[in-house]
Amino acid sequence: LARTPSRDVLLVSAIITVSLSVTIVLCGICQWCQRKMVSVSALPAGIPGLSSRRLPAAGKAGNAAPAPGQPPHDESDRKTEPHSSVSDLVNSLTSEMLMLSPGSEDDEGHEGVSRENLGRIQFSVGYNFQESTLTVKIMKAQELPAKDFSGTSDPFVKIYLLPDKKHKLETKVKRKNLNPHWNETFLFEGFPYEKVVQRVLYLQVLDYDRFSRNDPIGEVSIPLNKVDLTQMQTFWKDLKPCSDGSGSRGELLLSLCYNPSANSIVVNIIKARNLKAMDIGGTSDPYVKVWLMYKDKRVEKKKTVVMKRCLNPVFNESFAFDIPTERLRETTIVITVMDKDRLSRNDVIGKIYLSWKSGPGEVKHWKDMIARPRQAVAQWHQLKA
């Protein structure tokens, strides 16, 4: 008698049959998707994000007939070409999406260099011919950067009529305000019109600092011969980096060593390079001040020796500060490179703020210090105004 197949054999046969059927169906869908995806390269140019760059159309080459005199493509090559086209297309689409993404790493990498936002300022200017008076009104500013370690600024505006730098007017200081409103009017009286049109209105926005030199935020200049002064004209202008060389102040190499058991941080001021020359002779006499701050209040100050006539000084001086672990999040270490001047007030070359809430480079150094206790973690820092 013929033996009937067992239930297990029938079940296995059914599973194999269904699996093969599904594989065949999926293969057909995959090829269909590939043809559809390759056709994306022919999208109209008006689609946002895709209009500025052509997508690769390598997949079309796989379907083209061979040129005369050339051997036909091998079957295996023909199978791999659509896969290559799809991979290129996906990579291209990924690149486009990264370009459109407001938080992409590429944007963050260039933010501090080519896309630095210094805010903008609104002002108006006009001329009274009967009274020979130029009127400048400083209205407000928006989106100013934070210059203080507390995450804010104390902005005010200086007003010049260049090339005259001796006579200037100033607004009031707006405390802890990144979107200040001044609405202050300034008059340059007894100013003949023929001289006014030879001047350049120059506005400099600064952050007021009670303990050291004011920090420049940005500037705006507008030649008055290009303005219709017969009536008050109102402008919104983006602030540009100040042209006093504040962006190239040099770099400082320092290390931080955190000892949690001793509740201390050791700051080692190692060396500096390419410091800005602050003296008439084209050099500087640099030294470094280190302030320990807690909740915006000064706790302790230490400083290095002065290095005479040197723009690339080597200090190698260490300073220890007692900092309980529970105070770390509210602690800031302010490092200021100064130029010693015997005859006048010492000049600030540049500053560094080290804490949880400073700039990206400073925060990285601070976190590396916490993550590697009892190790001296060294890093170069760009000095800032």
TrEMBL record:
Q: Which GO terms describe its cellular component?
A: axon; lysosomal membrane; peroxisomal membrane; phagocytic vesicle membrane; presynaptic membrane; synaptic vesicle membrane
User: What PROSITE patterns does the record tag this protein with?
Assistant: C2
Please give the residue ranges the record annotates as the region Disordered.
Answer: 54-88
Query: What does the UniProt entry say about where the protein is found?
Result: Cytoplasmic vesicle, Phagosome membrane; Cytoplasmic vesicle, Secretory vesicle, Synaptic vesicle membrane; Lysosome membrane; Peroxisome membrane
Describe its assembly: Homodimer. Can also form heterodimers with SYT6, SYT9 and SYT10. Interacts with calmodulin (CALM1, CALM2 or CALM3). Interacts with CD63; required for localization to lysosomes. Interacts with APP.
The answer, when asked if Membrane is one of the entry's keywords, is yes
Task: Specify the domain of life of the species encoding this protein.
Answer: Eukaryota
Q: What is the lineage of its organism?
A: Eukaryota, Metazoa, Chordata, Craniata, Vertebrata
For this UniProt record, give its keywords in alphabetical order, as a comma-separated list: Calcium, Calmodulin-binding, Cell membrane, Cell projection, Cytoplasmic vesicle, Exocytosis, Lipoprotein, Lysosome, Membrane, Metal-binding, Palmitate, Peroxisome, Phosphoprotein, Repeat, Synapse, Transmembrane, Transmembrane helix
Q: Per the UniProt entry, what are the Gene Ontology biological process annotations, in alphabetical order?
A: calcium ion regulated lysosome exocytosis; calcium ion-regulated exocytosis of neurotransmitter; plasma membrane repair; positive regulation of transport; regulation of calcium ion-dependent exocytosis; regulation of endocytosis; regulation of insulin secretion; vesicle fusion
The GO terms this record gives for MF are:
calcium ion binding; calcium-dependent phospholipid binding; calmodulin binding; clathrin binding; phosphatidylserine binding; SNARE binding
Pfam family membership, one:
C2
Q: Which residue stretches does the UniProt record annotate as biased composition, category Basic and acidic residues?
A: 72-82
Its recorded name reads Synaptotagmin-7
Question: Boundaries of each C2 domain copy?
Answer: 117-237, 248-381
- Kindly give the Gene3D superfamilies that the UniProt entry links to this protein: C2 domain
